[in-house]
Amino acid sequence: MAFQARALVRTKWLSDAFTTRGKMRILDSSWYLPKLRRNAESEFKMRHIPGSAFFDIDQCCDKTSPLDHMLPSEKVFADYVGNLGIENDTHVVVYDRSEFGAFSAPRVWWMFRVFGHSAVSLLNGGFRNWELEGRPVSNNYVRPSPTDFKASLKRSWIKTYEDLLENLDTKEFQVVDARPSGRFRGLDPEPRD
């Protein structure tokens, strides 16, 4: 069983961890809205935190759903992260390249948690903060050897459309919408179909 990791780690901690920590995997989980016309994987190949792998949320999802980025099955998630060299006792640190370092990385952090992996942390400030502090970057990527990862979905962490509708009356849980206020209120156009 993996240990419970700190939810948020600093760049200094990660830099020190390269030499002091045990089994660790760093994941660039950048993703951009299509209107930005940026390719996260290409940017990863040009510059990333040394030793990182790229986590593609367009690939690690339920491809049978007509909706984007729906949670994959346990098997799909386990196979995907196993192919990134992650085992159940690997400490995973995720980051992204957004302005604040917290656009897509929290989603990947949550995916690990919902599939029973508590040894996962977010890099505070993401790649931007890493670079601003003058920490090393690389364009070298070594594909990890595939490993076995066992995923165990925490079903109670998932809310369905029906759960949300019922909650309008029961108010059993609080819903937090992370979209900007204009999108939340329907004043700004949606950036996706």
TrEMBL record:
Q: Where is the Rhodanese domain?
A: 20-139
Does the keyword field hold Ligase? no
| Keywords assigned | Repeat, Transferase
Q: Which CDD domains match?
A: TST_Repeat_1
Top-rank taxon, per record: Eukaryota
PANTHER family with a match to the protein in the record: SULFURTRANSFERASE, THIOSULFATE SULFERTANSFERASE
Q: Under what name is this protein listed?
A: Rhodanese domain-containing protein
At the highest ranks, the source species' classification is:
Eukaryota, Metazoa, Chordata, Craniata, Vertebrata
